[in-house]
Write a structure and sequence with these properties.
single chain, alpha+beta, BirA Bifunctional Protein, domain 2, Rossmann fold, eight-stranded mixed sheet, five-stranded mixed sheet, 15 helices, 23% strand, binds zinc ion
């Protein structure tokens, strides 16, 4: 039986990987511009990290994690998002002792969620995300948002909408939570089983239930922005001022809560209307209590994550991905056994001089080698026969122009360079 890739996973084939490289290069340059440095964390962590970090009553933890016992009977979970690991690492390596703010990003990190596979939603996907710790100022929130916005602008993405909201802090949230609980209690009959249990434990999580009936109830639920304390309200207004300074259009979307427990104050999403239904290309927010909840000091944080596959899908759809930029360079074609060895020596020499080259690896006839060189689109072919071996002068054929010249080894290298 043929073995196929597991459902919800995807191969990146050699002919497509350049798209990832282009995007990754852009992202690295951009992060450098904002002076963020890369962090790399393991693909799996202790399950407790996500229960504490992401939240016990979230959809991710309740339904979507790849959790298993390893051979040492430890509960292990494949990373379902990037922030918790960054926080764990920060605490473990005492990075909080460094000068603040602490800025980091992760790129193409694999993220695993057991979801229903659908357009742009995979069980293993890869994320780019940034995290910044140690500052509560609203201009930082605007700066974080601007990293994502700048990337999308640079890539030329169209049809995007920036949505922001504030979901309060430990001061104002209990009041809101109570209001929300009272509201949902009057609609109990329309809530799904999971949400009924959330009603007691964490009614806020009902707001992002994907169940149709629950979503109907949520439409008229009380909104966080109507219950913000003075501090949260000032912060939210100030953020809007800074976004305006940057020239961004944005929508205040009171229904935006994000599916994670750790957010405080600012949450945001950048939404594309290009993948059929509305689709989030970037989501993030502030998490001022997360570091403390994971066992670290009282340290504010903010960040975002975006799925690389989804972003590539939209770029593809909008025709913003260039053709493969790499060209096959030099092919060495040889006529007989002696020239084959000479060609083999030359091949090593070209590569030593930084010239990308290939020789015959299929024992093809000379004619078939030339045919192959044509088909694979090499820019140049070096032809070696009896004469060339004797005179040490090589025939270089420019495959695009069809011209040929006879060159010494040194001339050949200089021309190809
Ligand atoms: Zn507040
Ligand atoms: Zn529900």
């Amino acid at each position: 039986m043929q073995i196929k890739a597991p459902r919800g996973t995807q191969d990146v084939l050699p002919k497509d990987s350049y798209k990832w490289h282009l995007l990754e290069k852009r992202i690295r340059e951009l992060c450098d511009l904002y002076q963020f440095r890369e962090i790399r964390t393991p693909a799996f962590e202790h399950t407790d990290l996500f229960i504490r970090g992401v939240g016990e009553t979230t959809d991710i933890v309740e339904k979507e994690m790849y959790t298993f016992l390893d051979k040492g009977n430890r509960s292990i979970t494949l990373k379902p998002e990037g922030t918790a690991s960054a926080v764990r690492s920060l605490i473990e390596h005492k990075l909080y002792a460094d000068p603040m703010p602490l800025k980091m990003y992760y790129l193409s990190t694999p993220v695993f969620r057991y979801e229903k596979p659908q357009a742009g939603r995979l069980r293993e996907h890869h994320q780019f995300g940034v995290e910044c710790f140690g500052s509560i100022v609203p201009n930082l929130d605007a700066e974080i948002i601007s990293i994502a916005m700048t990337l999308f602008q640079q890539l030329g993405l169209k049809n995007l909408s920036l949505n922001i909201n504030s979901i309060g802090c430990p001061t104002c949230r209990p009041v809101y939570r109570q209001k929300l609980k009272e509201y949902f209690e009057t609609h109990k009959e329309d809530l799904c089983e999971t949400c009924l249990s959330r009603l007691e434990r964490n009614p806020i999580r009902i707001l992002d239930c994907k169940n149709e009936s629950c979503r109907e109830v949520v439409k008229n639920a009380p909104r966080t922005i109507d219950y913000l304390c003075e501090d949260c309200s000032d912060h939210f207004h100030s953020l809007q001022e800074y976004l305006t300074i940057l020239g961004y259009d944005f929508v205040v979307n009171p229904g935006l809560v994000r599916g994670l427990d750790y957010y405080t104050k600012t949450v945001f999403e950048i939404i594309s209307t290009d993948l059929g239904a509305q689709s989030t290309v970037c989501g993030g927010g502030r998490y001022d209590k997360l570091v403390e909840e994971c066992g670290g000091p009282d340290l504010a944080g903010i960040g975002f994550g975006m799925g690389i596959e989804r972003l590539l899908m939209i770029l593809e759809k909008q025709g913003l991905l260039p053709e493969e930029p790499y060209k096959n360079k030099v092919y060495i074609a040889s006529m007989d056994e002696a020239s084959k060895k000479e060609g083999f020596r030359l091949l090593a020499l070209l590569r030593k001089n930084g010239i990308s080259a290939e020789g015959d690896l299929m024992s093809r006839s000379f004619k078939a080698q030339m045919k192959y060189a044509d088909k694979i689109n090499f820019t140049h072919t070096v032809i070696i026969g009896e004469e060339e071996v004797k005179t040490k002068k090589f025939t270089l054929k420019n495959m695009e122009l069809g011209t040929q010249e006879s060159l010494t080894e040194e001339e050949l290298i200089n021309t190809l360079k």
